[in-house]
Amino acid sequence: MRIDIVTIFPEYLEPLNVSLVGKARARGQLDVRLHGLREHTTDVHRTVDDSPYGGGPGMVMKPEPWSAALDGVVASARPEDGPAPTLVVPTPSGRPFTQELAHELAERPWLAFAPARYEGIDRRVIEDAADRMPVVEVSIGDYVLAGGEVAVLVIVEAVARLLPGVLGNAESHQDDSFAPGRMADLLEGPVYTKPAEWRARPVPEVLLSGNHAKIARWRRDQAFARTLAMRPDLVARWERAAMDKHDLRALAALGVEWDEPSGRFRQSADGVEE
Ligand code: ADE
């Protein structure tokens, strides 16, 4: 996968040289290219922002440096990249970033990122780009960062680990929280390693039993309990077809039942509510 990132702080993206993403780059699985937005200014002060039309606090990023930078990225297309990248614009007013969106982006051969500082980028840049390439505005959460660079790091890391060959088999993402399939909308439960007893705390015995069916059952029960405690909003997304009779029994013990009229699982009134 090719990734181009246009930013006024290329140094903010140094972590892309480290660990999983750094290794994927070294192996040639990920081709990351950083572009300084200020390289595309034409004035002596290398200005990238200006005051907002209509007034208000803060500054808005000027369109000309962005269009020049993005035109340069598109012009550098190689045959294997496709005609244009999918442009990802991090913004708190974007579509929520989820594991599903990470999978969607991981399918694309070429991504470009336009992280903003200040109050954001002049809207016409996004509209102009959308005439030439797919554009997705993405929020990594309901909070406001000082700029989009950290969001880029988050999105690139989540996408990179889904690319074929980037994670070893031993670290497969099949069991991730939110992974599609049997673990959809379930949080992963606790994990343990050696020693079997530490500070008088033993590892749960079932994990030492060697009984794989029993261990899988225990892990799933833990995932149900964890999800109920941390993210009760996810319960309504669980699908009846994803549950077998053992699951239903485990859920009943946690106060969760299938509600036929609504077609959803829900916590019964006498359930374990906070
Ligand atoms: N830029 C500022 N805040 C952001 C957020 N929550 N998600 C993505 N980009 C952002």
Task: Provide the β-strand percentage band.
Answer: 15-25%
Low-confidence stretches: none
The hetero molecules present are:
adenine
**Global morphology:** elongated
Query: Tally the helices: what do you get?
Result: 7
Percent helix: 25-40%
Using the CA coordinates, give the radius of gyration. 23 Å
Average pLDDT score: 95
Taking the sheet with the most strands, its summary is:
5 strands, parallel
The largest beta-sheet arranges its strands as 2-1-6-5-7
Q: How far is the N terminus from the C terminus?
A: 44 Å
DSSP, total strands: 11
> Structural class, from secondary structure content?
alpha/beta
Which series of helices and strands comes N to C? Answer: EHEEEHEHEHEHEEHHEE
Structure commentary:
The protein has 7 helices and 11 strands. By secondary structure, it is α/β, with parallel strands linked by helices. A hairpin with a 2-residue loop joins strand 8 (197-198) and strand 9. Helix 3 (99-106) packs across helix 5 (149-160) and helix 6 (212-230) packs across helix 7. It starts with a strand and ends in a 7-residue tail after the last strand. It binds adenine (ADE).
